[in-house]
Automatic annotation (TrEMBL):
<dbReference type="GO" id="GO:0044550">
    <property type="term" value="P:secondary metabolite biosynthetic process"/>
</dbReference>
<dbReference type="GO" id="GO:0043041">
    <property type="term" value="P:amino acid activation for nonribosomal peptide biosynthetic process"/>
</dbReference>
<dbReference type="InterPro" id="IPR045851">
    <property type="entry name" value="AMP-bd_C_sf"/>
</dbReference>
<dbReference type="Pfam" id="PF13193">
    <property type="entry name" value="AMP-binding_C"/>
</dbReference>
<dbReference type="Pfam" id="PF00550">
    <property type="entry name" value="PP-binding"/>
</dbReference>
<dbReference type="InterPro" id="IPR020845">
    <property type="entry name" value="AMP-binding_CS"/>
</dbReference>
<dbReference type="Pfam" id="PF00501">
    <property type="entry name" value="AMP-binding"/>
</dbReference>
<dbReference type="InterPro" id="IPR036736">
    <property type="entry name" value="ACP-like_sf"/>
</dbReference>
<dbReference type="InterPro" id="IPR010071">
    <property type="entry name" value="AA_adenyl_dom"/>
</dbReference>
<dbReference type="InterPro" id="IPR009081">
    <property type="entry name" value="PP-bd_ACP"/>
</dbReference>
<dbReference type="GO" id="GO:0031177">
    <property type="term" value="F:phosphopantetheine binding"/>
</dbReference>
<protein>
    <submittedName>
        <fullName>Non-ribosomal peptide synthetase</fullName>
    </submittedName>
</protein>
<feature type="domain" description="Carrier">
    <location>
        <begin position="620"/>
        <end position="696"/>
    </location>
</feature>
<dbReference type="InterPro" id="IPR000873">
    <property type="entry name" value="AMP-dep_synth/lig_dom"/>
</dbReference>
<dbReference type="GO" id="GO:0005737">
    <property type="term" value="C:cytoplasm"/>
</dbReference>
<dbReference type="InterPro" id="IPR042099">
    <property type="entry name" value="ANL_N_sf"/>
</dbReference>
<dbReference type="InterPro" id="IPR025110">
    <property type="entry name" value="AMP-bd_C"/>
</dbReference>
Length: 696
């Protein structure tokens, strides 16, 4: 029957009611209503027997009355929820509470706009720009700069040198190089030859590098003198200088590369102890770079700062985006990044227009600007990614730089990097900074365990469909099957299950709510706790082990065994197979690990124990300099000053190179990063700091 809803105002301030007639002849209305209401609350909360203190429902004389809080729900949301109750009452076996209109809205209207992609790959779009302005500057680092013509020439010679060594279509080439002008020539050369780019950082442990090359079936390594020490003999090496000197033609190759051809592989941490290599195709790569160009305002003559390490997937768009539109890429070395004043000066001198950094580094930049205010006359857009950005940080940014846009970027390596952009020119109204809407040609669904979309505003798993979705994990069918599947709503298209939880906001933007598993972010890198724990169990003398995260950034390991092994030895063994950011800062030995009632490791107890042990008893700070330093440590490490003793070690408390940079800024450059590295104990470092004005 046709229902005619109507609105009434409840006499209780701050609430309202929505009324809708029920269909005639519903059996057992009271019990059915209770079951329907429970199902709706479960759907809205994302938890069994869900609870929702913002609404209640009653039925009187065949009228369903939904009472709701007006500070939480608007009229449109209340009408939708009333509709869920009607569906639950009239169609109890229907797999979703969503109406056909809402289901179609979520599947179609919340997707990114459709945009036709050019029938060109990234390297071909670059070649078009070379033809348009060959003598424009393409890449800059310190005193070196290469024109478009020179970069293209070197990349073509690299490509031909790779082909001369037997590179075939979709052959994997590891690029093991520092971030210098030869690096973009190497990347473009691999793509021009029809190969697959695999970044490997020179300082990664030899064991991890070997496992990465083996997993990817990599037979060729493109490298440079000084960067090849950990490569081993599993693959043939080609030094980039050798490729330049072999006399190959420097003209474009014209090798056909299709949109569905593999472009690159990025390895991320894996829960089984083995890194997993996410494979992405050229169409997704092009789509992502074009989204960056459009949303961040990258154009001819604009300068993009390349700041990310090679194994961080954002490094790729930072490297190539400006080169597709007639701009230039400014390569910023790691030593510069670790010196915030020098970094800010580099941004100013390099006339950087577009910059992307992690939120924790933006905090350091803001602290520097607050202490030494200066103009950033050319900067137009700053993007933050890799970590959740807090609203307070956004507020600080716009207080300091009201004319410079801030973009919150969200995405995963498996989805060709960022899929959502929240472009801000002011502080958002919401408590959490949203992830924004999907970029062009990207579809995002928020679903339950059965991949059925959840009600708008309800929490669920964030999954992806469209051109962004990669091919899976290289030579890893089991983990590919667990994360990649067919899109049930668009046959023939791939869907990726991210493991991230989120919800749709009323304005159609996505909000991040957290992870469903043990994956964490450390210094912007995805880290699977399981991978660290598997490496821990391979350390001689360790019988059992667990790793927890405290203060959102510090990894703490707990080990059991017949005889305790020194923390330095454990860390040294882990460093032989894990990158530095995955090595726990603290190692504790216990007789046994605490267990939950069902026999699993009690991580909640371990986290509390880690916090308690961190407090330690290393003596309270004694001098004015020690007390000042302890207060600064507390600020940058996010712990209470009372928990810091004069014999505590900065890096054992969770300090990193980045937090050491922030410490130097907080102390008005009275100490340097080098001082913190060489004198990490508080009492020793305070001796360099000296007493503040006023003495002890």
């Amino acid at each position: 029957m046709e229902t005619i809803p109507r609105w009434t105002r409840d006499p209780v301030p701050g609430t309202a009611e929505y009324e809708v007639p029920l269909p005639e002849g519903l059996p057992g209305a009271a019990s059915a209503l209770a079951a329907a209401h429970a199902r709706v609350l479960t759907a809205l909360s994302g938890e069994p027997a869900g609870h929702h203190d913002t609404l209640s429902v009653t039925v009187t004389d065949g009228i369903l009355r939904l009472r709701y809080r007006t500070d939480v729900l608007d009229a449109q949301a209340a009408a939708r929820i009333a509709g869920y109750h009607l569906t639950a009452l009239t169609e109890p076996d229907r797999p979703t509470l969503l109406s056909e209109d809402e289901l179609r809205f979520q599947l179609d209207e919340l997707a990114g706009p459709e945009r036709e992609l050019p029938d060109r790959r990234v390297h071909e779009l670059f070649e078009q720009r070379v033809a348009l302005h060959p003598d424009a500057v393409a890449v800059v680092q310190d005193g070196r700069q290469w024109t478009y013509r020179e970069l293209n020439s070197r990349a073509n010679r690299v490509a031909r040198a790779l082909l001369a060594r037997g590179l075939r279509r979709e052959g994997v080439v590891a690029v093991v190089m520092e971030r210098n002008p030869d690096w973009p020539a190497a990347v473009l050369g691999v793509l021009k030859a029809g190969g697959v780019y695999l970044p490997v950082e020179p300082h990664f442990p030899a064991d991890r590098t070997a496992r990465t090359l083996a997993r990817a079936d990599c037979q060729l390594v493109l490298t440079e003198p000084g960067s090849d020490g950990n490569v081993g003999r599993a693959a043939r090496k080609l030094f980039v200088d050798t490729a330049y000197a072999e006399g190959h033609s420097d003209g474009d190759l014209g090798i056909p590369v299709t949109a569905d051809q593999l472009a690159y592989i990025y390895f991320t941490s894996g829960s089984t102890g083995e890194p997993k290599g996410a494979m992405c195709e050229h169409a997704g790569f092009v789509n992502h770079v074009l989204a960056k160009i459009g949303d961040l305002g990258i154009g001819a003559g604009r300068t993009v700062a390349q700041t990310a390490p090679q194994c961080f997937d954002i490094s790729l768009w930072q490297l190539v985006s400006a080169l597709l539109v007639g701009g230039r890429t400014l390569l910023v070395g790691q030593e510069t990044i670790l010196d915030v004043p020098r970094f800010v000066d580099t941004v100013v001198r390099g006339r950087v227009n577009v910059l992307q950094i992690v939120p924790s580094y933006l905090e350091a930049v803001l602290a520097e600007l607050e202490q030494r205010p200066r103009e950033l006359p050319d900067l137009r857009c700053v993007s933050v990614t890799g970590e959740a950005v807090k609203k307070e940080l956004v507020q600080r940014w716009f207080d300091a730089m009201p004319g410079i846009r801030l973009v919150n970027a969200y995405g995963l390596t498996e989805t060709s990097d960022d899929t959502n952009h929240e472009v801000m020119d002011r502080v958002p109204d919401q408590e959490r900074v949203p992830l924004g809407r999907p970029v062009a040609n990207v579809r995002v669904y928020v679903v339950d365990e059965d991949l059925v979309p959840v009600p708008l505003g309800a929490p669920g798993e964030i999954v992806f469909s469209g051109v962004c979705v990669g091919r899976g994990y290289v030579n890893d069918p089991e983990r590919t099957k667990a994360a990649f599947t067919d899109d049930p709503y668009r046959p023939g298209e791939r869907l990726y299950r991210s493991g991230d939880h989120g919800r749709w906001l009323p304005d159609g933007k996505l909000e991040f709510l957290g992870r469903r598993d043990s994956q964490v972010k450390i210094r912007g890198f995805r880290v699977e706790i399981g991978e660290i724990e598997n490496a821990l169990l391979r350390v001689p003398g360790v019988r059992d082990g667990a790793v927890v995260v405290v203060r959102s950034a510090q990894l703490v390991a707990f080990c059991t065994g017949s005889e305790p092994v020194g923390a330095d030895e454990v860390q040294g063994k882990l460093a032989a197979s894990l990158p530095p950011y995955m090595v726990p800062a603290v190692v504790h030995w216990r007789e046994r690990l605490p267990l939950t009632g069902n026999g699993k490791t009690d991580r909640k107890t371990l986290r509390a124990l880690a916090e308690e042990l961190d407090a330690g008893d290393s003596g309270a700070p004694e001098t004015a300099a020690e007390r000042r330093l302890a207060a600064a440590w507390a600020e940058v490490l996010g712990i209470h000053a009372d928990r810091i003793g004069r014999l505590d070690h900065f890096f054992d408390l969770g300090g990193t190179s980045l937090s050491a940079v922030r410490l130097a800024v907080a102390l008005d450059r009275a100490i340097t990063l080098k001082d913190v590295t060489h004198h990490p104990v508080l009492a020793d470092l305070a001796g360099l700091l000296g007493a503040p004005p006023g003495g002890r």
